[in-house]
Amino acid sequence: MWRQSYGVDWHRKRWFSNVLPRIVRTLVLTALLQAGYRVITYDRRGFGQSSQPTVGYDYDTFAADLNTVLETLDLTDVVLVGFSMGSGEVARYLSHYGSARVAKAAFLASLQPFLLQTDDNPTGVPEDVFDGISTAVTADRYAYFTDFYRDFYNTDDTLGTRLSEEALRNSWNIAAGASWYASSAAVPTWITDFRTDIPKIDVPSLILHGTADNILPIDATAREFHKRLPEADYIEIDGAPTACSGPRTAENPAAGS
């Protein structure tokens, strides 16, 4: 546990640089630890066991937080792994701080390149979708989390087969543990434009995405991202939801490539 310049108490574990939500970590981290990797995870500000400030909910600050983790622990030869919202930390960190400490990067169910539909980004998601999410989170974030996880796991297809009721309940409990402010403030960050960050990603990278992602549609995200970073290894997991780094990928992540 340590405190950085923004007054955030970070809850940390061992090495691997990663901004996976805690519910997704178990299978991934188990495999990495069993393979002999040193693993470090941390909870983003406002979430998990980190403190809950009411400032700093933007990707410049999130990247600065990641930089603090790497510098404080003096980590080098790092593999940065970002999942969903956490992919933004990875892209913005490499853009702003360079790759001197980084060996590779992985973007799982990522936001990149730009999630918002605009005249120059026709494959994006219409702005009123995000307005509706913001309204729902503000009105009753607990009800919103129930709807969110239905799409996060595609429970109509996975519940009772690849996903247990207990795991779903645990996901909801973890989300409910975030601060109300962080839950609301996170939504506007989803439409951050990463298009100018991508050319600065200069390490070997992986882009992995499920074709049935109902939260971060693959046509708006991974497929466009790969066009802008064609040298990255690119894997689509056929039929996988946003939680593409859960049980299905633990079996064989390349199966749907």
From TrEMBL:
The name this protein goes by in its record: Chloride peroxidase
Signal peptide bounds: none
Keyword line: Oxidoreductase, Peroxidase
Organism the protein comes from: Salinispora tropica (strain ATCC BAA-916 / DSM 44818 / JCM 13857 / NBRC 105044 / CNB-440)
Catalytic class of the enzyme: oxidoreductase
Keyword Acyltransferase recorded: no
InterPro entries per UniProt: AB_hydrolase (IPR050471), AB_hydrolase_1 (IPR000073), AB_hydrolase_fold (IPR029058)
EC numbers: 1.11.1.10
Domain AB hydrolase-1 residue range list: 30-240
GO terms, molecular function: chloride peroxidase activity
